[in-house]
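Internal tracking record. Fields below are filled automatically when a chain is submitted to the structure queue. Please do not edit lines marked as system-generated. If the sequence contains nonstandard residues, flag them in the REMARKS field before resubmitting.
Queue: standard
Priority: normal
Entity type: single polypeptide chain
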Amino acid sequence: MSHESPHVMDLSSQTGKTGLQNDAGKISQKHLPWNNSLRGGITYGVLVICAISVSISMIIMLVFISRGLKMNLQKQATQLVTLAATQIDGNALGNLRTPDQMAGLDYSNVQNTLETIQSKIPDTVFVRILRLTSGAVTFVVEVNGNTQQSRQIGDRYQELPGTIVQRLQRITGPFTADGVITDNSGQYWSAFAPVYSSQGELSGVLEIGVRADSYLLLQQRMILLFISVVIIALLTVGALGLWLSRRMVNQIIYWGAWINSIAESKEIVLETPIKLTELERITESITTAFAGFQTRQTQLKNQLHEQNQEFMRRAGIIQTASQIAANASRIQDPDQLMPQVIIGIRENFNLETARYYEGNDELVTLAYEVNRSNDNRTSDASNLGIKFRKGDGLIGRAMVERSFQLGSEEIQTSSSELKASELIIPLLFNDMFLGVIELGTINPEFFNEFTIDVLQAMCEQISVAIRNAKVYHETRQAFDTLQNSYEKITRSAWSGYLRNSGDIGYNAGNSGLIQVNQLPVKNHLPAVGEPYRLDGRLLTMPVRVRGEIFGFIQASQPEGILAWTSDEIELLQTLVDQLGVALDNARLYSATQRSAERERIQSEITTSVRASSNIDVIMQTAVRQLTEALGAPKGVIRLNFSGTDERVKQEPEDNHS
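SYSTEM-GENERATED OUTPUT FOLLOWS
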């Protein structure tokens, strides 16, 4: 065997195992019938295993990322609906029960609040208030862009999934729907939060629907991206599997040929392996694809992180504005309201200055100001005489246009002079102009469109708080004036009653009920402002009528009992309070009876006098009945017929003429 076929390869050159070469032990490939089937089986097995592994890994990664994105969106929606729920007046909402109330002020206030919330939240499909009535979810107030879907109070919510209805029945905090809801409004994320009244009662449930188009589009892109990666991975794995199977088969063929060459001497013809250049090109393509996928994944993560940071920043601004407005609504003193409001605005929004101008739509005067350099202490700036008339500067323009004005001003600090942005927001209540708030900051990016909208909404709530505080103050003053007048009338009436009746008192003891006219000893009377006086076993309590003291009750424990318990004192205090009301009612009833008796007597005398046309008879009837009605011992009536100033001579005292 001195020559070789052109298709014959040396095993040592193919495998690199020179020690296994056997020149006499060469066989032809046709003597290995299992070659193709073995190669195909190994290739198929490697492909199946790799395909399953890659598919499972990609599916797990897709589910993990999709779930993380969903949880993040649900968290954002929960925070959003929680902040929005704090802006709704739960007391006004609790009053809305029937459709005829939709034309009232409470419905209008709640609807305006919902419209403000919808305008501040991007991609909002609707904002609505729901209520659970007899196991069914009904509408109270709804704001959406589709006027055909406007619903009245009490309309049933038919499209709400049953799982959400069950959660609404036991709602105690905010929650979101498990997935995207699809109904007549479209596809949206839905978040729910309870709305409570000032007494802590559940007035309704706020639902906000946020359009899910961006989420669904992102989800579709992620699915397409993962499918592309899976296809690329399968192609890569297929090429690697084919190359690996050929290498394995060649090794098996080599060892099989080596074994067979021991028994017989035949040529071994092996198939040329895959070229390494093709594998390198495939590997490079796969590496490039994976690098692009990782870059895109990093970009999506960064984009999602930036969106989350922006959302948290906006949520913080909304929460701060809501808290300031809520605090303002709880202040009832107009003189304390605005100083605390501008302190809160400057401190919480980290501004340089905050000022409040009060007045009308013709002239406003600087009332309070606070800045960074005075440690958040408001100063009464009314003595500075800083005034603005309609049309003067930004403040005057805001008075004319009744809208916010954005500009800049120079701020002098201890070290330098800074240029700051200033925002002027007028305070309006319906058509009433209440004043102006001026805000200044050195951050040029703070007063953007979103922040201005939030601050305007906050100022609307502050305007309502200012108006409510003024109305409450005026009502309180009127009530105090009326109360003082009523107390004076009551005091005068009781003084006259006691002056005519004398001191009235009763003593109840072992000997029964005895009328007394002696007041308690002054040493035993309670001091001014004290509810009672306790001297050992003797307890003295004042009897008050309309805040005035007109009597006392003294009670003494029997011998052997040295102290009064708190329950006994409280019970006696309750009885004394009821006694004061009963005594005043009895006095009023007695006064009413006396007035009625006077009216009756007056009517009878008038009727008797008018019954005659004779002057003597009229005079005799009048003097007789008046004397009898008044219980007087005598009565005299005189007429002067002379027409002069001369008085008629006095008649004898025993004559009635």
